[in-house]
Amino acid sequence: MNMWTHAIDDALLKIKQNILKHPGKLPHITDGERYEWGDNNDWIEGFYVGMMWLAYEYGQEAFYKESAESYLANFQDRLDRHVALDHHDIGFLYSLSAVAEWHVTGNQAAREAALQAADKLLARWRPRIGIIQAWGREDDPDNGGRMIIDCLLNLPLLFWAYEQTGDAKYYDIAFRHALQSQKFLVRGDGSSYHTFYFHTENGSALRGGTHQGYQDGSTWTRGQAWGIYGFALAYRYTKHEAFLDTSKLLARYFIEHLPEDDVVYWDFDVPVEELTPRDSSASAIAACGLLELLEYMEESDPERTIFEEVLHRSMRSLVEHYATTDLPDAEGLLKHGSYHVRGERAPDDYMIWGDYFYLEALVRLEKGNKAFWYET
Ligand code: GLY
């Protein structure tokens, strides 16, 4: 059994344990290397259901499919009652749950839920600025006119809605948001801002900043990873070459700034001391970004070998030093993720999106599976 298969088997077992132990519940961001289990009211719940779909696609075991399907009504109810949806992460929530279900089973109710979710995401479009507002209401004094790099991963829901309906507004808004992200969030040296502010009245660009990074102007490693994967996905749907170039630029910066064990600290600019937190989730996301990029790179491209080597080194390091394979009762898959270090929220804990992207990368490495809900 190779290293990836062994890691996947352990992950599938843990997903099953969690499902049996916490029926109908969803994991929340929690301090203390554990998950608290609760309702569908944050930005992260899609990852857990997405892991069930990955598990099903990997081994075709009906248990995972039935478990994932059992959450659809819950996600529909959240849409109907607009529970904690005043943010852009609707794409994360509904691509990995409803769109995934529609891809695997063709369930029309899942398709309808995903289309409703896409419409809610569209309502966050600010035409004067050309962005999807990340957080809060339009008149929110701190967040009005603010975009963040993470939003790139919400765009696939809009591209999918365009393919389903033929309505160009989904495509145009996703495309224009990606262009603004490229222009304002990516810096010339390949580093990135986490967030960028615009004037809400006249749409002019104001300044870059951070929310979860070390300081304004630093490079938050998870933001950089969202950028690598997000621009590669934007290229998948649009075939706009400049998005591919931007994804590669961000990947080079990420690779050039890796520490010796190939798993990043939480910010590329934070002074590294003995107890500086890592963010294993950023490395898992970047691994998926590299896998996506490799899909589009010629065999003869010399950079392909570099990306492939780094992908394998980082994944090996995650499996050998960060995975919970030696902790059979652990509920998380990856140790040493960080949510918001400066804000002192879960600085060194399990992150459900870290678990999700780690499993996605493993499954893609092992079976060559694409992330199937992104397929057209
Ligand atoms: N998208 C929120 C985060 O990465 O923490």
TrEMBL record:
GO terms for biological process: polysaccharide catabolic process. GO terms for molecular function: chondroitin hydrolase activity. The keyword Chloroplast does not apply. The keyword Hydrolase applies. The active site is at D89, D150. Transmembrane segments: none annotated. Substrate binds at D89, D150, G208, T210, R222, W226. Keywords: Hydrolase. Belongs to the glycosyl hydrolase 88 family. This is Glucuronyl hydrolase. It comes from Paenibacillus dendrobii.
